[in-house]
Design brief:
- With 501 residues, the chain is an all-alpha fold.
- It has 2 domains: 17-198 and 263-481, MFS general substrate transporter like domains (Growth Hormone, Chain: A, Up-down Bundle), CATH 1.20.1250; 207-262.
- The protein has 16 helices and 2 strands.
- It has helices at residues 17-33, 42-49, 53-81, 83-102, 107-135, 139-170, 175-194, 208-230, 236-258, 266-270, 272-302, 307-336, 338-356, 365-391, 400-436, 443-473; strands spanning 486-488, 491-493.
- A two-stranded antiparallel sheet has the order 1-2.
- The longest helix has 37 residues, at 400-436.
- The protein is globular.
- The two termini are 42 Å apart.
Length: 501
């Protein structure tokens, strides 16, 4: 039985922590790839279950709505009941929901299972990140661990595309959901044996008004952008939900500044490096998931790649991301700090997207697609693992769950917004091009390529804005680690540096 920490003691070294890293990373990969693995399977599922084209979006949206709106609650529950417990409950629930989705006999049961998947994913994801943060307290080990974890979190979407294509093509669309049962069962068995029990020294109270406000606000935000993706930006429901989201989230901010036991304590987001990291994860999530979608369309519709070949086409980018992630977290961030590293990553990602804009009807993969994909992967490798590590660095143990949930919220909500925004941007540009170039040979193909190019430019603008924001927000110098903190009442506090507030 894994040992329990005595009350009031700092987090000790965890035995078998590198095996724990494998289990935690596997669980995080499962959650992230599930945002894309079902995409390629949707046409097969639609034929099998006989639902409409409008229903296809709900198979995706039901997952993202539940996941995005419940993440902060899931993070606070991890602080309240213990990270190991919520991690294991999240795994079991995610696996059961995946089994129900794979066995679905109709559209309603499939959408319901996807929503339950998202709810348990909202419990699982912040628990995984907070477990990682408290398991690796040595600076060097922490850097290596976050390099692996951040690389998998960043490449999960691309891995999902490949795995979804392989499973759909060689087995069945149902296996894009059944595969989670296998992963979750393995992770639960290993987690029970490896992960150390965690009993919170101080149980935070749950802020129910704040939970309601932020849950409803994030739901309206994700739904508003999803509605713009399926309908149009002129749709009243789209702007109604986005307006409601703004009001609810503003009320949440006011509530948290005055609540005696806030769901998201202001101290978590007050540090400049941490705030910059949250923004970096949001921008990277927006650009990354949006580009995955647009580039998938280009490879399949324009270059006529199969689903499996499309997934394989993303693998070099995944490799570049993983290699650079280790370099950034183990060498660059400890040696130089985040200020030169993360903005450089933003600039590389923007350059890679600009490099994609000349793609045409007859572009070749090796000559035209691969080089910008490698640059994009390198940029994401500099941004995501570094930002994820810094976003949870120095957070008090009682806030680790909600801080980790904030990171996941930024990535998930950013991905939802990027997918909707870039998809509608491409669709609008395609329609406008078709209207103004009537009579041109291969009009539809040229119009679609023009739409993709417009989306690449928009995504490059996101990363360019990220470069500016991170240059302004990140502090100079190397980040201070928990080891440099001071202990107060058995908990480690981060030392505030000048200008951190």
């Amino acid at each position: 039985m894994p040992p329990t920490s005595p009350p009031g003691a700092p987090e000790p070294h965890t035995p078998h922590r590198w095996l724990a890293l494998a289990v935690i990373s596997l669980a995080q990969l499962m959650v992230v790839l599930d945002a894309t693995i079902v995409n390629i399977a949707l046409p097969s599922a639609q034929r099998d279950l006989q639902f409409s084209n409008d229903g296809r979006q709900w198979v995706i949206t039901s997952y993202t709505l539940a996941f995005g709106s419940l993440l902060l609650l899931g993070g606070r529950l991890a602080d309240l009941f213990g990270r190991r417990r919520t991690f294991l409950i999240g795994l079991v629930g995610f696996g059961v929901a995946s089994a129900l989705g794979g066995a679905a006999g109709g559209f309603t049961s499939l959408v319901g299972a996807r929503a339950v998947q998202g709810a348990f994913g909202a419990l699982l994801a912040p628990s995984a990140l907070s477990l990682l943060t408290t398991t690796f307290t040595d600076p060097r080990e922490r850097s290596r661990a976050f390099g692996v974890f951040g690389a998998l979190a960043g490449s999960g979407g691309a891995i999902g595309l490949l795995l979804g294509g392989v499973l759909t093509e060689h087995l069945s669309w149902r296996w894009t959901l059944y595969v989670n049962v296998v992963i979750a069962a393995f992770a639960v068995i290993c987690g029970l044996a490896i992960l150390r029990r965690h009993r919170p020294n101080e149980r935070p109270r749950l802020d129910l008004p704040g939970t309601t406000l932020v849950g409803a606000g994030l739901f309206c935000l994700v739904y508003g952008f999803s509605n713009a993706d399926t309908e149009s930006w002129s749709d009243r429901r789209c702007w109604g939900f986005l307006l409601a989201s703004g009001v609810l989230l503003a009320c949440f901010v006011l509530r948290e500044s005055r609540a005696p036991h806030p769901l998201l304590p202001p101290r978590v987001v007050r540090d400049r490096n941490r705030a910059a990291s949250f923004v970096s994860v949001f921008i990277a999530g927006s650009g990354m998931f949006g580009v995955f979608l647009i580039l998938t369309y280009y490879l399949q519709r324009t270059l006529h790649y199969s689903p499996v070949t499309t997934g394989l086409a993303f693998l070099p980018m995944v490799g570049a991301l993983m290699l650079v992630a280790q370099l950034s977290t183990n060498v660059l961030i400890p040696g130089m700090g985040p200020k030169p590293v993360v903005p450089t990553g933003m600039g590389l990602a923007a350059a890679g997207l600009v490099w994609l804009t000349p793609l045409g009807l007859h572009s070749g993969y090796v000559a035209h697609v691969l080089p910008p994909l490698l640059v994009l992967g390198a940029g994401l490798g500099l941004v995501l693992p570094s930002a994820m590590s810094l976003a949870t660095l120095g957070v008090l143990p009682r806030d680790q769950g909600v801080a980790s949930a904030t990171v996941n919220t930024m990535q998930q909500v950013g991905g939802s917004i990027g997918t909707a925004l870039f998809n509608t941007t491409a669709a609008t540009a395609t329609a406008d091009y078709a209207k103004t170039h009537r009579g041109r040979p291969d009009l539809l193909a040229h119009a679609e390529v023009h739409g993709y190019t417009t989306a690449y430019w928009r995504a490059a603008g996101f990363f360019a804005a990220g470069l500016l924001v991170t240059v302004l927000l990140y502090r100079r110098g190397r980040p201070r680690d928990l080891a440099a903190g001071r202990t107060t009442g058995g908990q480690v506090e981060a030392i505030d540096e000048p200008g951190s507030h």
